[in-house]
Amino acid sequence: xxxxxxxxxxxxxxxxxxxxxxxxxxxxxxxxxxxxxxxxxxxxxxxxxxxxxxxxxxxxxxxxxxxxxxxxxxxxxxxxxxxxxxxxxxxxxxxxxxxxxxxxxxxxxxxxxxxxxxxxxxxxxxxxxxxxxxxxxxxxxxxxxxxxxxxxxxxxxxxxxxxxxxxxxxxxxxxxxxxxxxxxxxxxxxxxxxxxxxxxxxxxxxxxxxxxxxxxxxxxxxxxxxxxxxxxxxxxxxxxxxxxxxxxxxxxxxxxxxxxxxxxxxxxxxxxxxxxxxxxxxxxxxxxxxxxxxxxxxxxxxxxxxxxxxxxxxxxxxxxxxxxxxxxxxxxxxxx
Length: 336
Prior knowledge:
Blueprint: H1 2-10, H2 14-20, H3 30-40, H4 42-59, H5 61-68, H6 76-79, H7 93-96, H8 113-149, H9 151-166, H10 169-182, H11 193-208, H12 210-223, H13 227-234, H14 239-247, H15 252-276, H16 287-296, H17 303-330
Subcellular location: Cell membrane
Pfam families: BPD_transp_1, OppC_N
InterPro entries: BP-dependent_transpt_permease (IPR050366), MetI-like (IPR000515), MetI-like_sf (IPR035906), OppC_N (IPR025966)
């Protein structure tokens, strides 16, 4: 009787809790805890806002063009006298910056720099996102397959990865891209934009799935020996169920971290290839092509080089900081 009375005193019923106005404690999910850690990281929040701004500018490029009243293709300097000198240099100081042309004019052709920069974001992000989607999907499939099956499959996939990593990818891009385009375009004709973009996406995808595949292979090799995987096998779960229900949920964190690292890497790689002349070419707006043209006029019109260079630097830096913050939020043990 005494024990029963003590239990009643120590454990108030639901009516007493409700009458006191107190709410029972509610647990937080791993996602809520990660979001809470991310919000406390000021650098991560600011970087996320910067990255979001770049994405919104890229998606809203046509709307910005409509509001601004200009496009990235019209050669304003050639159509309107007084904007460019006889040598193709903007007549007004600072590359022709004024209230009409916010970031000035492109040397020689007289196109609006602001609109080229906005549409250049769109080009770089579109190619980078498609490439990252492909390499992530391929890397996840191959990495999980190698780690889960092991044996000969793991050995064969590992040798393929080692072979691809041993090939100098930049030299391969420079040598293979013109050859690939020549297979579909007659001599003397310029390759259409969609074909160049497709070739660029395929070439970048061939070499860049290896990092995610190798990382996930190592993760799966560690996870497949854990108790919950052994329990699933003993209970008669199929390999498909083990991979989809047990392994894949535990690989979300490394996959997200790799994605946040791959996007800025693909943006810089695409810009580098366009700078070297094997990526996007005239008249498609592209940061790499703008930097290449700006390097030719660095002494006379330095602003045309500064704007795309600073934009590329800010985007890559913000995305890398965002990736670090996402990693620390999802896996606080990785933070030292």
